Amino acid sequence: MAVARLRIVLMGYKLSGKSSAGNTILGREEFDLKRSAQCVRRHGEVADRHITVIEAPGWWINEPVAFSPELLKQEIVLSVSLCPPGPHAVLLIIPVETRFKDYLRKALQGHQDLLGERVWSHTIVLFTHGDSLLDTSIEQHIESEGQDLQRLLDKCGNRYHVLNNQNRSDHTQIEELLEKIEETVAQNNGCHFEIDRKILQRINNKRRAKERMQQERVHIRSQTSECVSFHCFVSITILYRCIRTNINGIFSTNTYYSANLDFLRWTPIQIQLSRRVISTDFREHYKNQLC
């Protein structure tokens, strides 16, 4: 089933070679090899197809999804919305030289599950650094890695492909990958992957809640700064007046301290009004008595 416009999402842990895989697929340097905390989208024309590639940010290789930052999980979920109406395939990137253990399978599966159970019917495992296999076939490699890798492959219908990032001139490997993606589309009745709206809604609610919290923090900080700066200003003003008048008498009656405590209980409106009054009075007093 030929698809003229293909949409692909790259998933994987940090240093798995997602950016290199994206560059190999598009046939040129489109993705920065430096790590990014946000999704990156690039386009290109490959084998008579218009290709959109989204690179989702990665997690640490041994990091369970429960310990991943909330922002990272949100970016992973939002990656599928950057290629509307949805990706035709999600490529789960695994370097072929990786010693596959149970903790790695759980981390990969946990982060992939953020997109919902249906994503597995659109997932293809993409083994990168295929040159590391040397004379070993990919089937032999999978068998040698044991049950953990096979369990992951079973999860995505045993769909996988090998990519040699060092040999970008070999266009055959990319054409075969695109054909496998088209086969995946055909297996899904010609449909792309569409994330459950409830998952997106939950992520959007979390983002809005975080934005509200940040706005509240900024508001509280500005009010706190206003009160502190005004408190310091009033303290200096009162101290100045104490020095200009009868310092012993005023301090003995605790005027300085009680005045400061009263100011701390003032509302922001009182502070604004009082600042204008005291500032004007202070300038006049300073001009008349010191100039």
Describe this structure in words.
The chain folds into two domains: 5-195, Rossmann fold, CATH 3.40.50.300; 200-290. It has helices spanning 18-26, 70-79, 102-112, 138-145, 147-155, 171-187, 197-244, 247-252, 255-264, 268-290; strands at residues 5-11, 40-46, 49-55, 89-95, 123-128, 160-162. The chain has a six-stranded mixed sheet, covered by helices on one side. Helix 3 (102-112) links the parallel strand 4 (89-95) and strand 5 (123-128). The radius of gyration is 31 Å and the shape is elongated. Mean pLDDT is 82; it is low at 247-261. With 291 residues, it is of the alpha/beta class.
The SSE string, one letter per element, is EHEEHEHEHHEHHHHH
> What is the CA-atom radius of gyration, in angstroms?
31 Å
The CATH H-level superfamily of the largest domain is: P-loop containing nucleotide triphosphate hydrolases
Give a count of the beta strands, DSSP E runs of length 2 or more: 6
Family: Belongs to the TRAFAC class TrmE-Era-EngA-EngB-Septin-like GTPase superfamily. AIG1/Toc34/Toc159-like paraseptin GTPase family. IAN subfamily.
Protein name: AIG1-type G domain-containing protein
Domain AIG1-type G: 3-202
Keywords: GTP-binding, Nucleotide-binding
